[in-house]
Predict the structure.
Amino acid sequence: MPLLEVRDLTVEFPTRRGVLRALDRISFTIEAGEVLGVVGESGAGKSLTGVAIVGLLERPGRIAGGEVLLDGLRIDNLPAEKLRRIRGRRIGMIFQDPLTTLNPLYTIGRQLTETMQTHLGLPDAEARRRALGWLDRVGIPAAAQRIDAYPHEFSGGQRQRVVIALALCAEPALVIADEPTTALDVSIQAQIITLLKELTRDHGTAVMLITHDMGVIAETADRVAVMYAGRVAEIGPVADVIRHAAHPYTEGLMASIPSLEHRVERLRQIDGSMPRLDAVPSGCRFHPRCPRAFARCANEQPDLLAAGATSAACWLHAHG
Ligand code: SF4
C-alpha cells in the first residue's frame, strides 16, 4: 500500500463569474522511502496540490472531488482538529516562507523541543539534545550557542533551515516540501537535499518535493510528476521522464534542464504561455501550444495513458 495516495483530487474556487477548476482530477502515489518530485511552471497547481493534501486550502477554495489517503486511511474528509494532529505528527511541511511557520515570540530551541515533546513524548533533556542535533544537521553554525535565539536573530536562509528542522524533528512519515531550497545558496541546498535523501533511506520517510527546478528533481527524486494547467501531464521514474519524455510538454521542459556547467534558474519557456484558469482550452489543455496536436486533441481531454516506462496524459499514446 502506498504511504500517500491521491485519487482524482479536484480543487475549485467559486467566483462571481463562475467556478474555476484549479486542480482537475490529480492522481498519484508516493511510497514510503520515496521522493516524488512535482515540477511545473508557476500556476500549474504544484503548491495547491500540497496545500490541498494537508487540508490548508484558503477559502473560498475547496476540494470538489477525489480522495487523499495516508496509509490507506482517508484524510480529506476528517474534522479540522483531527487533521491538525495528523499534520503535526505524520506529515511535516516545509513551505517557502519561513515566517509563516516560525513563532516570532519563542526561541527556536523552544519551538523544536515543544514539537518533539508534543509528538514524540520526549523528556526535556532528550528533546533539547535532539534539537541541537537537528540544528546541526540542517547546517546552523554554532548550534549550541544559537539554540536559545529568536527567529528574527537568524538570517533568511538560516530561518529556512530552522523550518526544515522543525518539519523533520517529529519524524513524520511524509514530508511535503515546497521549494525548500530555493532561497538557500548552492552549498546549503546540496546539504538539505542530502539530508532529505538520508531521511528517506534511513527512516523510510516519503517526500513530496515541489519545485520549478528540474535540476533539483534530477538530483533528488525517484519519480517525477509534471504538472500543467492543473493536471498531471506525465508521471514516471525520473531517469525515464528526463531521457524519454512521452508528453510533448515534458519534452519541452526537459530541454531546459540546466547542465551542471550552465546552471540556469528557470525552466525554459515553451512558446506561448500556460492558460489562465478562466480560459482553460477544451480537450487537452496543452493543445494550443503543442507542436504535435491533431484533431482529437482540441475536443477530448486525455487522462494518463501508459507510455513506455512513464504515463502521459496525451492522445499520442492512445491505442485504439
Ligand atoms: Fe499534444 Fe494532443 Fe498530446 Fe495534448 S494530447 S499533448 S495536444 S499531442
